[in-house]
Amino acid sequence: MSFAKYLGIRIFNALLVLIFVTFVVSILFVKVAEDDAKTRIAEIINNEARNPSLIRLKANDPEAFEKWKRNRMEQLKREFELDKTFWERVISKTKNTLLLDFGNARSPVFGEIKVSKIIEKAIPRTVLLFTTAQIIITFIGLILGIKAAQKAGKAVDKLLSVLAMLTASLPMWWVGMVFILIFAFQLGLFPASSLPDPNLEGFAYYRDLIWRMLLPLATVVFVSFGGWAYTTRNIMITTMHEDFITVARAKGVPENRVIYGHALRAASPPIVTNVIIGLLGSLGGAIITEAVFNWPGMGRLYWVALQQSEVNLLMGVTYVTVALFLASMIIADVIYGYLDPRVRVGR
Amino acid sequence: MKKVEFLVLLAALFIATILPAAAKVLPNDGQANEIQVYAMSNEETAIVSVANGEYDIFLFSRPSGAYKDLDPKILDNLELIRSASVYGELTLNPVHDEGDLPIITVGDKVYMNPFAIREVRYAVNWLVSREHIVQNIYQGSGAVQYGAFNTFYPFNERMKDLYEALGLSPEGDEELAIQMIDEAMNNAAQKLAEAGYTLEKKDGKWYFNGEPVVIKGISRVEDERKDVGTYFASVLEKAGFTVENNIWDRKKAIRAVYLTDPKNYEWNYYTGGWVAEAAEAWPETELPQFYSSWYWGLPGIVGWQHTPTVTVKDLIDAIGGADKIELNYYTGDMLSEILDFTVDDITMLLVNGKLEKDDKTFTLENVDQYWDLQKLGLGLGIMDSVRVFTISQTEFFPVNKNRVDVKSMMVDPVSGLYTRNALLTASTPDRILKVIEFSSTGALFMSAFNPIGSDDIYAMLIWRLVTSPPLWIDQNGVYQPVVYDYKVEKGEFEVPDGAVLYNSTTDTWEPGKGTAKVKVTYKVLDWGKWHNGEPVTPEDVKYYIAFSKEWSTQDGEDDPYYDESLEANAEVFKNIKGIVFTDDGYVVYGDYAHVVADDLTASYYAFFPDLPWELWYVLGEMVANGYADQKWSFSEATEGVNQIDMLLKDHVVQIKSALENMKGTIPSALKGEVSASEATKRYEADIKFIDAYGHAVISNGPYYIVKYDPESLYIELKSVNPKPVATPTPEKTPTPTPTPEKTPVEKPTEKPETPTPPKEEKKTPGFEVVAALIGLLAVGYVTRKRAR
Question: For residues A71 and A80, what is the distance between their CA atoms, to the nearest angstrom?
Fold first, then answer.
């Protein structure tokens, strides 16, 4: 099988998965939104019924009152799309999502009403925070992991193991709240809210944006670097026990070259794969962490969509997240094959 | 701080904020020159940020428990403003089969429903300890509530003798309740036996046809109502019932209680909660909505409905005589005339002003009669006990007391700071008010921003600051003049020549005629200006009335000039016989007059526009006929239909385009009233405003929107009448006093020529420290590398 054919099959499979996931997600969200919509309609009507004018209307002209109630419920049903059957909604949402027609949200988010524009606004912010954090985590993880692998069994290695376990088991949102308490409120070093100051412009705005980003960035890095470093350490230790490393050392190759030139190169496929998946995965953001820091990224967008039962927005965000994940798998596959000739197909 | 001290402090704050509740002249001018509104998704961060001076007010109330464990240093900077708008109740499902027996058949099975027996429901008033609910479950954050009236309503004092006469007490009386239940159940057992069923109490448990009598509860999981439901289940168990207490979320609970036929018998009790919007002087809605069968839902809004049968005579007998409560109208023979009244009769009489019963006509005539009926109706509702009210919950808004002059704020005794008056009267030394809202959804507003469709609390608060209402509610719940002064005259009035009515079918003004029962004269106190600089005119008022009539009335099946959400206003127009427009307002001749409350009558017929006539007209045309190949709506956001949002860039572009395309067009309702040149000038002023500020919220209120940044969850309002700034802010406040901005009110379409004052520089000394540390680390690293 040629590489092109292999790639074609992978892409085709990914598309099938995307279609299937979109359909299943559509069923789930439409069902959940339907239940929520019925509840909201009841709450809205219950609330509006407390209008004294309506009470008088009911007392004086019950028929007119029932007409109001009927019309209002019909209007609300239309708004929440309950005037269509369940399967009509599911198929319509699936089809539109696959055609990248995400439609509109019911109420504006981030100042936009078109779902595609809302996502377009959220992604760069998520990249700014989480992808930046992922890059930093990758570098720190590599450096620490390699160091620990070099000194396997020694104090550095043991410290890293403990640190990895500790930081990986802390919930990111909790660490965020602790950091806000210490660094924002107690020490006054950073602002508590990461929303940029709307009263600044130009360089001052970007400076303020980066300044506000530091605390959430530090949180994400703090919670995640340990696990990454430990993974790198394990991969490197396995690689460094290979025969070719022993041969390289026996030939008198400097240790740095052994590590970076030989071992890391051989260990790169799984590391790079994880990096790619991590990078693309970071585009999904983190719901609770973004809520803690008021960061208006993809995670917060998901939260808004869930809270308001915005099915179109949920479909759009899920679709984009799944598509990115599938893309990352394919890219990782390709790069893995490039880096490790042993797993290439089509030869 | 100890819990006791904390509660004493809260009580003192409550007294300090509620006592000076004497009516004040309602302001239509804000103390702040600038209001900055931010939003945050984290409540704790917001509270601490207010204490630190980053913001002045957190516009989201929290129970006292949220403040209890705060560092005293944080608490010392806060003034806690009370809100008491939420109240809780236990809804008891009284469903039963036809007839008198307390049984309900579902499929093949027959169940015994204890709450089908009125005496059992009534006993719940003693079975539960409201004191326990308030003190232990809500941690003291509330007050006992016995009936449908929120405890903090100003008129609730009048009802105290009724509560005492009924023997209601905060602690309840479990023993008495169980006695009452046993008696009622034993009586029911006799009737059931005649029908071939068995109902008996064995070893302290009730059994129906050999099976335990099961009570199924629905307790809401989201808040303290979960614990209220659990507590109720425990006391019901003591009374001999087997209880299944289901803890459900909002969706599941509301579907079961309100949207499912009670005859499905899925639940016996539900922990309900309600929200009151503001203080009320006249309770118009509570008795019909919570106790009557003709209005809303008893218990749900679909399916089987309960019919209350308790009469005034039953109430008088229960309290041991009419002299046990203060009745000023229904005494002697007057009382005997209504002894067979049920709560349905009383509420119908209160709402309609008259009642036809047993070939007699009863009319509502004076204020004594009104309050007597309210009291009697409340008593009947309590005795019927389909809803057993338990608590008026108190929560608190944190305000930075070093920045805000709390004493000068007009706080509503029920809604706290969720009132226009409070924000208008909030004063800070630099006249900049920084408000932080709680955004659970991550958005500033949860509905589109237009004067018809905005229905979330924050959008409505902003609207109330940028618009001028004709009348508004003061701290006693009485409508007071804001734009209009008014005079209500009752009697018989011939509708004069010159009075008109708008015909929404022909789109013309037609002569009004006939006689009217009330004449209300409105005089504008100050016309003011639109934010675009144009004056507010009588034509704006006239068109607004025509617009309201047009859009609330469905002329035919496919009337494009109709919005379902405005249908409720149609009732007003049915009662208007004619309107005479004057140079300083208008006079309404109508058939509806509140029997006792002139202010309610005045608010009923009061119209004052939120937008200039040409903007209403253009928006209306966009909605009715579509624009730019798109469909539009004021209140509906469905697939393919845009709900107009006057802040959203894409929509503002279309609104501006529509204004340009329709420039100078005069609607039929104003033909002959406005000249072409005047009309063109108005359109141009709107277009200029949109160009200057990027949004289309052109209104006539004390504030206008200068900046809207939805990504930063920020909106900024500026006063149309800025005031001098006092001496620089005290040391505690990190915000420096900005240069007062000269807002040219005469030309608000142009951006102010004075330079924008320097923005607040927040002191973040940590930035330099951290940068220095990073620099040192970098130097150290490089040095080490070179040393190798």
Answer: 14
